[in-house]
Amino acid sequence: MVGTAEGMSNNGYLNGATNGTTEEKVDELRRLFGKADGDPLRIVGVGAGAWGSVFAAMLQDAYGNLREKVQIRIWRRAGKAVDRATAEHLFEVINSREDILRRLIRRCAYLKYVEGRLGDRTLYADEILKDGFCLNMIDTPLCPMKVVTNLQEAVWDADIVINGLPSTETHVVFEEIRRYWKERLTVPVIISLAKGIEAELEPEPRIITPTQMINRATGVPAENILYLGGPNIASEIYNKEYANARICGAETWRKPLARFLRQPHFIVWDNGDLVTHEVMGGLKNVYAIGAGMVAALTNESATSKSVYFAHCTSEMIFITHLLAEEPEKLAGPLLADTYVTLLKGRNAWYGQKLAKGDLSLDMGDSIKGKGMIQGVSAVKAFYELLSESRLNLLNPNENKHVAPVELCPILKTLHKILILRELSCEAILQALRDETMNDPRERIEMAQSHAFYRPTLLGQ
Question: Where is the composition biased (Polar residues) (predicted)?
Fold first, then answer.
């Protein structure tokens, strides 16, 4: 087993404070893992979407010079071809940045981008990632990283694994990883970045989160699995826009990891309420899709967007009262994450493109240049879960018991648009204009004044 943080002094750190040099933070983490001299701390990112790639690149930027003490690499599947249009755009990005151009010429890598642009060769996602280009974020060059396309090679001896996979792929990939960890004598630490959920209806209706999927798939103890999330746009974080996040999980690991991950422009706090924060990260994606639709259909009307925001936040508050015993503690993080996702997130972008007709539902929820649109599967999961009659509660306005989803008209409409495909995007406006729609204040008051908390929804 790896070492623990028990018995160590906190060295005067405040909730993720940056006290100490880069090397001191590495040395602290190495002590926790019981690392001997000459044995580097091995960190591997699994999945190379925008946030997964940026997260690994930030660690490489911060700690990559300490090669004898820490080794950072990232895994992505091999063989994904870069199309001609993307190759041409990538070439334009390279030539617009003198530092990137010089770097590629110095590494004798520039010629392959010339050939890719001319169509004389095919570029692949894993090879451009080695040069610092994430396929979902071409306009934001990253630092070069060690890229591994063999999953066993990537993870078999990893001390820290960063889950950058979509929630829909997490269980399958980590089931494969389990095979490679059968002979391990030590237990790794896993940090999940995934924002998505699944619904499980038997034996009791409940939400399954990525950290729970990882625990089931690998057998790694829950105290060694953490979630990191916050109101973050990947490209802006890599460009050192000020941002913050929370790492949630057991105190043994979350506090030293908060210190390790924290940088002057990326403030990491820690919190013990892992699953609820993780679920909230998935919930805001649901309503972000609807926000994008409203923005597109009303020509960015501030009034219409504010009406939608009032209704969607009241539904989110209602749902948090079902999920959390102390939902008021989630209000700030949930609203902040929702705000940034509505402003610039991929789920809001997806809703806009659907409403404008630039995308269709038949194209699926994995979109070129954006990656997985997590909100689509989250709509399905939350709808299925909250439709369960076993969760029925009293609607005081009608004095009858109803499934929770009946009190969430925006969620119901999004399900009809995205999953059942019974309605067009315009239905989201019709739902807002429905004269029978209750004042969102009433939904919030209802949630606050009745015992709606259902601990079984989070397996508690």
Answer: 7-20
Which CATH number does 22-78+146-272 carry? 3.40.50.720
Q: Please check the confidence at residue 85 and state whether its pLDDT lies above 60.
A: yes
Please tell me which residue in 35, 284, 370, 416 is annotated as part of the active site.
284
Phi, psi dihedrals of residue 207, rounded to the nearest 5°: -90, 140
Cα–Cα distance measured from residue 370 to residue 378, given in angstroms and rounded to the nearest whole number? 17
Q: Is 284 a catalytic residue?
A: yes
Structure token digits, residue 257: 């990891």
- Torsion over CA: 136, 139, 145, 147 (sign): positive
Q: How far is CA 196 from the centre of its chain?
A: 7
Which of 200, 263, 219, 213 is closest to 237 using CA atoms? 263
Q: Where exactly are the structural domains of the chain?
A: 22-78+146-272, 81-130, 279-458
Domain 279-458 class, CATH top level = mainly alpha
pLDDT value for 451: 74
Q: What is the largest CA-CA distance in the chain?
A: 73
